[in-house]
């Protein structure tokens, strides 16, 4: 079966031409699939019945199957999706008190980066998602909100997986989120663990998308202990790539800092971070550690976080603390994993 979300305009045109349809049909079907976000072919009332039947028989509107759904006390919704090959991924919808409706979507089933405090990292890597699988997660929430007279306003690529490890599919998905879901580039954020070559590549894409970098420590020893990727691209190279990105794009970078008691909430780390980021067009986003099964650390206490933020201010570095969301349903940062698949069944290929 052809997944219509996998096709671009040229793909629609050649498929319908192959089926002996007049040229204007490609545009009609495209409109139903992407602009009107149809859920079934029956809705496509301006198409001939025979064409609708052929579409039903030979194509499909996406591949994601909801395997489980949970709602948090704070309104956060977490969905577990089953992919066509049985892999499982999660995505989250976070309605904020203001008008923002943010979808947090996955780019891989599992993750190969092995960050010690992250539930996805603890699972290992299963496979990359296709651009269509990434796109469809947001499409599904968009549809849900539109059926309630609301709309999806923001997307963060901060679910399972490392977006820049799956670079081409991620960038293709971002373009489709902008073009087909109508989400403004400035309302899309991609977060990377710090893959230096891809940060450089991303600077040349000409996208106005926001870039977030998972930093978490300001010295190589501390960072390598938390994020194995730091051994491959240490801080000096990462920060140089960030400077290059800012210079090329004129865009501010966000640094994410998962605050762990006694690890990276110290004055030492605050001063090191202040020195590292002084004078840079950036912002630090502090996320108190969320609990995961495979890591024993505790979230930093609020007085320590306040002290940390105050120290950064001395260096002219701005920092804010991210509101925790969906913790009661394990939908917070770093808590996503496919609970249904047993971890040992997921092959670690890298
Ligand atoms: N792979 C990408 C994006 C997904 S994770 C990345 O690592 O940047 C989104 C953010 O949540 C990252 O900054 C990540 O380091 C952080 N995170 C991971 N585990 C966490 C946890 N247990 N508590 C809080 N934040 C966590
Ligand atoms: Fe992968 Fe990001 Fe988790 Fe690290 S924090 S293991 S890069 S998803």
Overall tally of domains: 2
Look at the helices and sheets and give the structural class: alpha/beta
Kindly state the percentage of residues in helix: 25-40%
| Strand/helix succession | EHHHEEEEEEHEHEHEHEHHHEHEHE
Number of strands: 14
Kindly state the mean pLDDT as a whole number?
93
Task: Give me the Rg, rounded.
Answer: 21 Å
CATH superfamily of the largest domain: Aldolase class I
Question: Cα distance, first to last residue?
Answer: 30 Å
Q: What's the CATH C level of the largest domain?
A: Alpha Beta
Model regions low in confidence, pLDDT < 50 over at least 5 residues: 340-350
Give the cofactors and ligands: S-adenosyl-L-homocysteine, iron/sulfur cluster
Number of helical regions: 12
Strand content: 15-25%
Largest sheet: 10 strands, mixed
CATH architecture of the largest domain: Alpha-Beta Barrel
Overall, the morphology is elongated
At the third CATH level, what is the topology name of the largest domain?
Answer: TIM Barrel
Order of strands in the sheet with the most strands?
3-4-5-6-9-10-11-12-13-14
Short précis:
The chain has twelve helices and 14 strands.
Describe this structure in words.
With 350 residues, the chain is of the alpha/beta class. The chain is built from twelve helices and 14 strands. It has helices at residues 9-18, 24-35, 49-58, 119-123, 131-147, 167-179, 196-203, 220-226, 229-232, 235-249, 267-277, 302-314; strands at 2-3, 59-60, 65-71, 77-82, 88-95, 101-104, 108-110, 125-128, 154-157, 188-192, 210-214, 253-259, 282-288, 319-321. Strand 10 (188-192), helix 7 (196-203) and strand 11 (210-214) form a beta-alpha-beta unit. The radius of gyration is 21 Å and the shape is elongated. Residues 340-350 have low confidence and may be disordered. It binds S-adenosyl-L-homocysteine (SAH) and iron/sulfur cluster. The site of S-adenosyl-L-homocysteine (SAH) has 17 residues, from strand 10 and strand 12.
